[in-house]
Fold these 2 entries.
Entry 1:
Amino acid sequence: MNVIAYIFVFLFGAAIGSFLNVVMFRLPKGISIVRPHSFCPHCKKPIPWYENIPIVGYMYLGGKCSGCRKPISIHYPIIESLMGCLLLYLFISYGLAAQFFFYMYLFCSLIIIAGIDFSYQIIPDIISIPGIAIGLVFQIITNNFILGLIGALFGGGLILLLRVIGGWVYKKEVMGMGDVYLTAMIGAFVGFPLIIASIFIAALAGAILGVIYVISTHQSRESPIPFGPFLGFGGIAVLVFNTQIIQFFRLLGINL
Ligand SMILES: [Zn+2]
């Protein structure tokens, strides 16, 4: 019985992942999310439903469009599988309690924002600013409003501070206002003090990948590396690995 429920939840997550791929591709271009139906970005061929089945469709097509044979980005099946796994994790951890639905909302928002920031260096405020309010509603429902509010203020405030100091030191924008709202949103959902761990993980992941980039390409990047994907990664990681992260910080002598 449980196995059937797990399979169903995974497939539901994969279908949501498929929708997130559409939003990520269309939102920055101003194309409607509902119409037209899915099409190949190269040859504009409409994609029939059986080629559009999450994960399976990509495998069936061998990763190539059936019209023009151009490769389909690997990010489609990756995001579908990721959402399937994340939703399964939420279901196993919380059943169908409020956490399931609100964390699902957070994960969807973070994945869309990460994808758009990665491709366009824009964080859509239309997702992050209402997200702050939705995160605080979640904290009211679960009786955690004060820690959620502190999380939002601390997260947004810290990035705002970095933005102001970075502007003075480097005489250019090191953090956008988009990063400020995004971190406030994550803080509202994960609360205080997990938001500290979330930002720490984002900064660490950003630093490691930044160093790998510079070493592998032997050059420093002209445009700044978008920070949104790392903030999103930190936000998801603290919720999925919260017990391990609390233990890790305890080893460092910090009680979260
Ligand atoms: Zn095509």
Entry 2:
Amino acid sequence: MDVVESFLSAVRSTLATLTHGAIALLIPAAFFIALAILLKRGEAIAAGRRAAHEVRTNLGLYFIDIVLVVPALGVLTVAVATAMRALHLIVVPAEFWLMVGAPLTLLAAVFVGDFVGYWRHRLEHTRWLWPSHAIHHSDTEMTWLTLDRFHPINRVTTTIIDSSALLALGIPAWAAVANGLVRHYYGYFIHADLPWTYGPLSRVFVSPAMHRWHHARELRYAGTNFATVFSIFDQAFGTFRLPGPCDVPLGLEDDTGRGVAGQLAYPFKRWFGPLFSRKPAKAADQP
Ligand SMILES: [Zn+2]
Ligand SMILES: [Zn+2]
């Protein structure tokens, strides 16, 4: 009886998570659909149809993420925080941020968060982490929902690197959460199919056009524009490229697998496939 009750309780809680997850998408969906209709007019429906198969994969990964990955990442974040405290790795005391005040703390959290995110993203483009990051680049019809196309292993490396950097700086939990929300919702915006380059403001902020170049199929473009919020970091480290609105083919030359199952299996095939195959593995295209 207990087993049946536990099973039913797990089903109820999963259904509640899925419902909350669907509701969380409603406002961004309404916003980006309205923008698409305003900008593309009659072409919006055809663009939606073209993107439908990629959107299905992105939604599949999103729902797997909120049911299975997010709870695991919560536990992982607590474990990282506990380990860092035990090892005395928190170098800035909490009092410093109390003295600085909330608005500057928030700005620092987003700025430092983006600096760390920039270098973590560059690490994801090295041959060790590229297989788990590649599926984010495999969307050929990029939309705002491409932000939800990440492999769970990519989520784990992001969480460990980003949260340990913010923890080391003693950034308070509320500011770290606020930084996560800014990156999430601004992340939706820069993945949307918008031709905006921001003009002179592109020297400060990442625009949708700038991030679209990062998703270009041609490797010389995909190896640029790693920041999420501030383009300053790409300019400082020589990876800024914004020739105008991005109108080149997106995605990857490599086949990263069909649908959700194929995408989830891809990095394991890249990492461990050669161990079980007699044929020499073809090197993956890696920007
Ligand atoms: Zn990337
Ligand atoms: Zn992206």
